[in-house]
Amino acid sequence: MNDTRQDAWTQDEDIILAETVLRFIREGRTQLEAFKEVGNQLSRTSAACGFRWNATIRKQYQHAIQSAKEDRKNGLKKDAVVSVNHEPKEKYTIDSAIQLLEKMKSQFPDGERAANKITEEKIAYLEKENEDLKKQLERYDHAWQEINKLWSWVNKSD
Question: Is 0.70 surpassed by the pTM of this model?
Answer without folding.
Answer: no
